[in-house]
Amino acid sequence: MEIGVLGLGRMGRIVADRLREGGHEVVGYDVDPDTVAAAAEDGITPAESIPDLAQQLSAPKRIWLVVPSGDPVDAALDELDPHLDEEDIVIDGGNSYFEHSIRRAESIDAAYLDCGTSGGPASAEAGFSMMVGGPEWAYEGLVPAFDAVATGPAGHDRMGPVGSGHYVKMVHNGVEYALMQAYGEGFELLANGRYDLDLEAVARTWNNGAVIRSWLLELCEEAFREEGNDLGDVADHVAGGSTGTWTVQEALEQEVPVPLIYQALAERFDSRASGDGEGRFARRLANRLRYGFGRHEVARQD
Ligand SMILES: NC(=O)C1=CN([C@@H]2O[C@H](COP(=O)(O)OP(=O)(O)OC[C@H]3O[C@@H](n4cnc5c(N)ncnc54)[C@H](O)[C@@H]3O)[C@@H](O)[C@H]2O)C=CC1
Ligand SMILES: O=C(CO)[C@H](O)[C@H](O)COP(=O)(O)O
């Protein structure tokens, strides 16, 4: 099928490439003209503007947004909306706040799918895990596209009505924070404990059959291999935090205790208040893990 991809950054470019590899035709647009030119060299049909992207697509139009959450999503929808009708489908593949997705779905004529996406740029080859909310007909119509961008048919599903995709992804990220903090605390104890340990070897051993093996633990192994046993100059400064904040706010509203997720979020805030120094090993590992899966910039010690 023909799909427009709006936003060709770290994640959008992977969405566009995997759609093409799956046999779909992709028209791409990004506010950065160099990004569009680079995509065009690799076979993505370039668009000069959002109206141009909409006009290049035949009806019914399918447009996948992969732009930063917040104002860029509203700005893109404002420009798109005059070119859309109720047969068209817009997918928001970013980390948008679920209540914003519900509002946006009500404000545009096209069907709206909120698609929480996990795996990060490091999963370009394997494909993503995708949690989709929105009308069933729109999800069903896009299954071939989701098959191509996800790890395959098992890598995506419809969670429920609009909002539910980003809601599930929000909670996913809260879990992500807590897992990173838990691995970090364990390695901090080992780094400061009784034995002179090779932490890459510990992570590799755990990743081969241990109860706590996981992709995040493979990324810990990679971090020790690439940065060294002491994580080199990786700073105690963990960026991000919006999805974890929303998770904690929702947990308070629902009266569900989430102390581990809150503590992991609080550790991030404290890392930023304490400066970019050597600090806590656990938080330095979390800083490096965000690069591992998300290609987020690693804060380094001065
Ligand atoms: N990097 C990651 O690990 C993951 C990111 N996400 C989410 O995916 C979304 C995109 O993230 P990334 O690709 O990492 O960001 P990015 O910063 O690498 O790419 C965003 C792209 O959108 C473009 N852009 C901004 N406003 C635009 C507009 N109005 N029209 C067209 N293009 C526009 C920018 O020029 C940039 O190329 C965000 O919501 C992010 O939270 C979701 C899962 C994983
Ligand atoms: O969604 C993601 C991974 O699943 C993104 O990498 C997101 O940026 C992670 O959240 P934060 O930036 O708050 O660490």
Ligands present? 1,4-dihydronicotinamide adenine dinucleotide, ribulose-5-phosphate
Number of helices: 13
Question: What is the radius of gyration?
Answer: 20 Å
Helix-strand topology string: EHEHEHEHEHEEHHEHHHHHH
Domain count: 2
Mean pLDDT: 97
Main beta sheet strand tally, sense and closure:
8 strands, mixed
Biggest sheet, spatial arrangement of strands: 3-2-1-4-5-6-7-8
Map the helices and strands.
Blueprint: E1 2-6, H1 10-21, E2 25-29, H2 33-41, E3 45-46, H3 50-56, E4 62-65, H4 71-80, E5 89-92, H5 98-107, E6 111-118, E7 129-133, H6 136-141, H7 143-149, E8 156-160, H8 164-191, H9 199-207, H10 215-227, H11 242-254, H12 259-273, H13 281-294
Parallel strand pairs: 1-2, 1-4, 2-3, 4-5, 5-6, 7-8
Antiparallel strand pairs: 6-7
The structure holds 1,4-dihydronicotinamide adenine dinucleotide and ribulose-5-phosphate (5RP).
Ribulose-5-phosphate binds next to α8, α11 and α13.
